[in-house]
């Protein structure tokens, strides 16, 4: 059987690290913890699980820390996780089976990464990431922030879900500060840097600067198609925040140059036209969103807003058709939304309202 090293970089993670290691520790052959400057009890907690704990001086470079962590692995394959990631109990048996399945001719294994769930536990955002790589291939990380690993060869797509379960609140300035430092030093930005710097600007409500750098990213014509589509979507969000819906519409339409429409883009268009009380146009875009194939979109590999492929367009169509006086269609779409989210408070409110209308008619 192939052996497996777990490699993690951590800092001040005593609140979540134990939860992560409890979920995966018994399924790997080695745990390597790279501490980048904790001032809490992170290292003491990690020592309960492994004696392979190493210090790494933080130099504002996540790839450097990741590559250092990989250098400490001694087993056949490497698994990487963050401290606030968890392998759910239901996935652990599948992980054990996967480990038995690992062979010399496998170069990497990708896994779905669950980024967000709603109150009912349904996935609302996910992406697929390469999680396990063969050590002898020497795959490396690149990028000071939002680092990525260049992987090739025989890559297996697993259905084992890793869940991101952060307990941190608020928006950290850490990544923005690193990018600003890079700019101050005159360092060149790769297309990926341009895209993720724009994301940081958006997160911090620096809308004009975000638009500037999304456009610079698109102008390189070197970005991943999913990031290009996302850039258009996020520029549209910036323009909406700046109360400029016409430019928002232009950016959404620009996204269609890269591939068939995504449901979140269609929902943005529907929202804009609903806000303008142009109900026929809103219906068109929400109907299109509701018709799009979620599985086909998921296969593209980008970040997905699951809500836009499931209940959200139906809930909005309920509103549109009600305002158009088409009550039966409004009821129908509320029921469609309920099929996806049976406890959604807005859906239940609509259901009660329709019931009250029926009682009044009787």
Protein architecture, described:
It comes from Falsibacillus pallidus. This is Tetratricopeptide repeat protein. Residues 5-142 form the Glycosyltransferase 2-like domain. Strands 1, 2, 3, 4, 5, 6, 7, 10, 11 and 12 form a ten-stranded mixed beta sheet that branches. Strands 8-9 form a two-stranded antiparallel ribbon. The N and C termini lie far apart (71 Å). The chain folds into three domains: 4-164, Spore Coat Polysaccharide Biosynthesis Protein SpsA, Chain A (Alpha-Beta Complex), CATH 3.90.550.10; 171-255, Serine Threonine Protein Phosphatase 5, Tetratricopeptide repeat, CATH 1.25.40.10; 260-362, Tetratricopeptide repeat domain (Serine Threonine Protein Phosphatase 5, Tetratricopeptide repeat, Alpha Horseshoe). Helix 9 runs antiparallel to helix 10, helix 10 (263-275) packs parallel to helix 13 and helix 14 runs antiparallel to helix 15. The model has no long low-confidence stretch (mean pLDDT 95). It has helices at 17-24, 42-46, 62-71, 89-101, 174-184, 191-203, 207-220, 225-241, 245-255, 263-275, 279-291, 294-300, 311-323, 327-340, 345-361; strands at residues 4-10, 30-35, 53-55, 77-80, 85-86, 108-117, 123-134, 141-142, 148-149, 155-157, 162-164, 304-305. It has 15 helices and twelve strands. With 362 residues, the chain is an alpha/beta fold.
Annotated CATH architecture of the largest domain = Alpha-Beta Complex
SSE pattern:
EHEHEHEEHEEEEEEHHHHHHHHEHHH
Whole-angstrom Rg? 23 Å
Tell me the number of helical segments per DSSP (H or I, 4 or more residues long).
15
Number of strands: 12
Mean pLDDT rating:
95
Enumerate the spans where pLDDT stays under 50 for 5 or more consecutive residues.
none
Organism: Falsibacillus pallidus
InterPro entries: Glyco_trans_2-like, Nucleotide-diphossugar_trans, TPR-like_helical_dom_sf, TPR_rpt
Domain Glycosyltransferase 2-like: 5-142
Protein name: Tetratricopeptide repeat protein
């Amino acid at each position: 059987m192939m052996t497996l090293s777990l490699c993690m970089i951590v800092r001040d993670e005593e609140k979540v690290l134990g939860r992560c290691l409890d979920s995966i520790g018994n399924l790997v052959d080695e745990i390597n913890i790279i501490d980048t400057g904790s001032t809490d009890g992170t290292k003491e907690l990690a020592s309960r699980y492994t004696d392979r704990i190493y210090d790494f001086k933080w130099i504002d470079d996540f790839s450097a820390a990741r590559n250092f962590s990989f250098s400490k692995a001694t087993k056949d394959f490497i698994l990487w996780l963050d401290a606030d990631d968890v392998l759910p109990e239901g996935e652990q048996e599948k992980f054990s089976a996967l480990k038995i399945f690992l062979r010399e001719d496998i170069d990497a294994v990708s896994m779905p990464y669950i980024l967000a769930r709603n109150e009912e536990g349904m996935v609302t955002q996910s992406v697929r990431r390469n999680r396990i790589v063969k050590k002898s291939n020497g795959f490396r990380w690149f990028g000071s922030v939002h680092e990525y690993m260049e992987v090739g060869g025989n890559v297996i797509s697993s259905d084992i879900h890793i869940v991101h379960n952060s307990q941190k609140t608020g928006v950290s300035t850490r990544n923005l500060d690193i990018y600003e430092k890079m700019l101050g030093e005159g360092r060149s930005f790769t297309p990926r840097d341009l895209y993720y710097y724009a994301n940081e600007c958006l997160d911090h409500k620096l809308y004009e600067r975000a638009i500037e750098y999304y456009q610079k990213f698109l102008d390189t014509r070197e970005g991943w198609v999913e990031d290009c589509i996302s850039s258009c979507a996020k520029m549209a969000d910036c323009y909406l925040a700046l109360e400029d819906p016409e430019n928002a519409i232009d950016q959404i339409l620009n996204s269609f140059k890269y591939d068939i429409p995504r449901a979140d883009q269609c929902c943005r268009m529907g929202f804009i036209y609903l806000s303008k009380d142009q109900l026929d146009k809103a219906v068109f875009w929400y109907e299109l969103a509701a018709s799009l194939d979620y599985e086909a979109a998921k296969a593209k590999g980008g970040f997905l807003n699951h809500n836009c492929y499931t209940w959200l367009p139906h809930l909005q169509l309920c509103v549109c058709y009600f305002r158009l006086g088409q009550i039966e269609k409004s009821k129908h779409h509320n029921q469609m939304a309920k099929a996806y989210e049976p406890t959604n408070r807005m859906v239940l409110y609509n259901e009660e309202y329709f019931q009250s209308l029926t009682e009044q008619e009787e």
